[in-house]
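Practice record 12: protein with TXE.
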Amino acid sequence: MLTIKNFINGEFENPISNDWIDNYCPANGEIYGQTPNSSKADIEQAYQAAKKAFPNWSQTTLEERSKILIRISELLEANLQYFAEAESKDNGKPIHLAKSVDIPRAASNFRFFGNAITQFSSESHETVGKDALNFTLRQPIGVVGCISPWNLPLYLFTWKIAPAIAAGNCVIAKPSEITPVTAFLLGDICLQAGLPNGVLNIVHGLGNSTGQAIIEHPDIKAISFTGGTKTGVNIARVAAPMFKKLSLELGGKNPNIIFADCDYDDMLETTVRSSFANQGQICLCGSRIFIEASIYDTFKNDFVKKVKALKVGHPSNSKTDIGALVSKGHLEKVKSYVNIAENEGERIICGGKTVSIEDYKNGYYFEPTVIEVPNNECRLNQEEIFGPVVTIMPFNTEEEVLQMANDVKYGLSATLWTNSLKRTMHMTTNIQAGIIWVNTWMLRDLRTPFGGIKASGIGREGGFEAFRFFTETKNVCIKY
Ligand code: TXE
């Protein structure tokens, strides 16, 4: 049985209240670990450690900070197999995905922000005609909170932590209680890399106890959060009276818009990935697929053939395309949407059922599912399912599909398939989303702004945007 501990002031600690949560393995449904359910008292202990570390850390040279972050990155790379196995076991994702995407990206997060901080600079403005010079300082905030979800556990956890500490802050970070293991293992890597005690404190527990204690703490001045929209609403409500800085990356219901003039084979291959990668549990997955009517039937046949060929299996099997969903509760949620589709009379073209895997009968497996919907107003097109379920429907004109793409409360990302430049410009300027991919999906450059609009959140992560979030801006005007 694995016992996960909090990492506070460079020490591994039990929760003060001695309250624990079971940690499940999604591949077989068995309990294999215990996670602290930390309380206010643990958060206070972490806060005191972070507060104590801040004066020195914020004055550490950029070269030194950069060196430590890059060392963390190298240590993650050196332990790739170990971390990938842990991530796959904890989350249910195929091991090859954890090994090729999750852990390499966690390492890249530290390397990228370790390098980027050496290039981040302040601005100066000469106020011509008034004998004055303004300069703008961007100073670390102090103690900040980072809260991350279960779908890309170490990948998203480090996406927040790396820029926060690179910018000179001290951090209290909470991974999802559903996938705590790789965050726990990161503590040891930080010690090996020589990160001073208290700079990063990793505290485990449930959202409504540990998470709530972080957001309610009056001296944790900024919160970077990725997770569900409902949780984001609660965080905004709690944080507003304290004027905390907030970055909220929330849910999505992203359109994947396919025009007949696209590169068909490339589109088909990528659409399978953008629908079902990571069991469809990525906030950027294109879960509403709109296809130009002239190629609708061809697409439907070809797509379904490819989806049926996807292998649902144990995450450790190298041939597995679709692993286990993250939890029993989440499996139930995904299943409930298939029931809704049936009740609403929508056509389930393939999938729609749980899968029983030999020797792992209690695992949380679900078939990749394609549902044909009659309109964009149905619940399946309006609500985030966050699993291996996509809808398809035809459209006739640009205006019609644009209207449907935007007629949803979310605005995270969109994917567009076309070879027309004119159409690309018209669509991309009018789609309501923070991130748009044209003729590709999930092609990431860490310098670019990342985040959504509408119910998908506020603020942008990535590149210097992340440093702007994790710093306070101060302007100084000197009259000479
Ligand atoms: O997310 P939660 P859940 C969506 C997806 C999914 C739904 C719910 O639709 O089905 O959200 O997932 C912490 N104060 N996304 O319930 O609860 C929690 O402990 C402070 C989209 O897992 O939002 C965890 O660390 N923190 C998404 C984190 O918030 C709180 C990824 C996310 O959990 C808290 C995941 C509170 N009161 C789910 N309550 C994306 N955008 O990528 C919970 N938390």
